């Protein structure tokens, strides 16, 4: 859909003029009533419109308004209004257009700010997303053109629109990767995508470790997890270096890239396995970011490390009770082969610590079902010892609407992963604090001088059913917009 910023003009001929209104805003209703010759009053009496978020009322356009229809769209309580409200309204507008076959609408923005333009555009574009390449017939979104009515449009509004377009491009790129089934998006296909990103710009280079190199270099954890599968594992290392200017900061990102998680010998029950093509969502987030990174021109060196493999079961696979040696030199007793994410990420963390030596590591993984139990589908958990990293990431989260909530890295619980025969076990034997146990395990592979944040995205990376207007079911692309905001904060 094409989005255009224009000066408010009620004479514009569109299928609908959409006006968000707040709860109890009698003044706004009176104004709109005046615009359409007093015909709104009767409608309001008939309907139960209270302007709750997403509620709507539709009347014919007449008098001063040349639009065929006028839609009043509830924006909720004015006191609870934030940019996220506009993203959600963007999603609602897409639905209204689909239901009513509107292809061209005008939307009046409640406030003139650039943040509002950005958020509304994100909501409109993100809700337009479909993944229907494997369907013979599929419906396409009806809305083709949206005019954003502003009292005084200026160049900053245009920039906001471009910013939103970039965020959406990265996010939908990640969604596509997550939505691809595991027979189409195997480790080697992910490598192919990393290669394409590398080829698209001189600022990004890729180093890719093959199975043979992983074996020679001692990536024992990745090798153990991937051993049960016929498909070969890779470690992808992408680096973005700005063209000019002095680089002050070096940030490393790490993403879990399990293209299918059967659980291995500790096999998952069938109903818990069906969405496990999405167990590479952490890796997809980083690829989505790198897809748009060169356009941002940030003065930060950014590394993305993606261990990618399948977690399958066979006579060659790792077995419960096996002891393996990780890239760090630490040995791991694998007591549950379904706690494989932390195992491959351990090698990723040690590789980053030894070879990249950044100030900061931020890691994204669909790590634990326990995180979903704790926070549900909308919210990711952040675990970090660094107050600054936590503050910056939470700030980025509030700005972009991708929700994050802190969980404590309770040090006493580390004892539960002490092994009788190895340096550490990959699980604790009781069921408590499953998400935190994952974070504690990972933190053991990061030296104290590096600030480290673990973000468990098991919830918001994949929606079985859509509950947020601008996020269709399936992969959400969670984390791309969070990282974009975070990088904006730290590069200032
Ligand atoms: N990929 C899963 C975590 C997961 C579950 C992500 C549900 C998304 C939705 C992970 O590899 C896993 O299986 N974790 C185990 C850990 C346990 C064995 C300690 C889990 O959560 O059950
Ligand atoms: Mg390149
Ligand atoms: Zn697993």
* Relative strand content: 15-25%
| Helix percentage range | 25-40%
Mean pLDDT across every amino acid position: 97
Ligands: ligand BES, magnesium ion, zinc ion
Output the number of helix runs. Answer: 14
End-to-end distance: 32 Å
Q: Give the overall shape, derived from the CA principal axes.
A: elongated
Radius of gyration: 25 Å
Structural class: alpha/beta
Low-confidence stretches: none
Tally of DSSP β-strands: 20
Profile the largest sheet: 9 strands, mixed
Description:
The protein has helices at 26-35, 40-46, 83-100, 114-127, 155-179, 187-199, 211-216, 220-226, 281-296, 341-356, 369-375, 387-400, 434-443, 480-490, and strands at residues 2-7, 16-21, 56-60, 69-74, 104-108, 145-150, 204-209, 234-240, 249-255, 257-261, 300-311, 322-325, 331-334, 360-365, 379-384, 403-406, 424-425, 451-456, 462-463, 474-475. The chain is α/β, with parallel strands linked by helices and 492 residues long. Strands 7, 8, 9, 10, 11, 14, 15, 16 and 18 form a 9-stranded mixed β-sheet that branches. The protein starts with a strand and ends with a helix. The model has no long low-confidence stretch (mean pLDDT 97). Bound molecules: ligand BES, magnesium ion (MG) and zinc ion. Residues 261, 263, 311, 338, 340 line the site of zinc ion.
